Amino acid sequence: MPAADTAGAAGAAGQAGGHRGITLSRGTAACGGERPLPLEAVASAELREMLSRAAQYSVHSYTDSLRHGFLTLSGGHRLGICGTAAEEDGRVLGVRGLSSINLRIAHQAEDLQAQIARWIGTDEPQSTLLLSPPGYGKTTLLREWVRYFSDRGFTAAIADERSEIAALADGVPQLAVGRCTDVMEGCSKWQAAVMLLKTMSPALLALDEITAPEDAKAVSLCTHCGTAVIACAHAAGLDDLRQRPIYRELLALGAFHQAVIIEKQDGQRVYRMERWEETKC
């Protein structure tokens, strides 16, 4: 088969605390934490077939999520796709000519409960940011953070925009998020936050990645309502965080009281708590 029609296979396996994943892409290069897998070359047609199977042969039903470059699977797993974007009037309609797919496999990390207990003890929820580069396990830690407070009797809520924190199936979370947790999924963080704050009165509201002004608006709304927020942000640390306008505004607002920075040392994840009073924002 011509080189243009074949693909190499590369896999990235996470450790406890993050997603495990497998990446299949055209070409044979592997980068970052990926390692080659002993698989035969993957043809472009096979990538299309994988996407069709993941979508249960109803790809059009997932048009809205696919135009954002991913498809959420039952159980909270996520299939990311790359290729040639189809665009109209500045809006991405979808992706054609698939060049690679990345399957992120969600899983529980119950060992994190002991770490959270050491940080929190018997305290009430406080607004907290989880910081790390991509792929370090922020979403997994966020899920366990919610479960920790929820199982202690605090009302919690999750704005699960991409259906990967709780992974509802017929209204039942496929991943453990605690006995006092309400979930709103499939809409923007802002829309979910408004509905949850109005109807469920949570003591803690969980948002995944803050990436847009509308997400920051949801955090601000929680702050004014007296609800603690647990959220994620792509940043190597507090200094990196302060370089970004959207986060500077939130820090200036006093929206967060502390941050957990996830780092890697010798290939292992290391968690470090910093409180705002210990730093100058």
What do you see in this structure?
- There is one protein chain.
- This protein has 281 residues and is an alpha/beta fold.
- It has helices spanning 44-54, 63-66, 112-120, 138-150, 189-199, 213-225, 238-242, 245-253; strands at 7-12, 20-26, 35-36, 70-72, 78-88, 91-105, 128-132, 156-160, 168-169, 172-173, 181-185, 204-209, 228-234, 258-265, 268-275.
- A 7-stranded mixed β-sheet has the order 11-8-12-13-7-14-15, with helices on both faces. A 6-stranded antiparallel β-sheet has the order 3-1-2-6-5-4. Strands 9-10 form a two-stranded antiparallel ribbon.
- Helices cover 27% and strands 33% of the residues.
- The chain is globular, with a radius of gyration of 20 Å.
- The chain is built from 8 helices and 15 strands.
- β14 and β15 form a beta hairpin.
- α3 (112-120) crosses α4 (138-150) and α5 runs parallel beside α6 (213-225).
Estimate percent helicity.
Answer: 25-40%
Main-sheet strand order equals 11-8-12-13-7-14-15
> What class would the helix/strand composition place it in?
alpha/beta
- What's the helix count? 8
Uncertain segments are: 1-19, 28-32
The fraction of residues assigned to DSSP E strands is 25-35%
Order of helices and strands: EEEHHEEEHEHEEEEHEHEHHEE
Rg over C-alpha atoms, rounded to the nearest angstrom:
20 Å
What composes the largest sheet?
7 strands, mixed
Q: Globular, elongated, flat, extended or rod-shaped: what is the shape?
A: globular
Number of strands: 15
- Distance, first to last CA: 57 Å
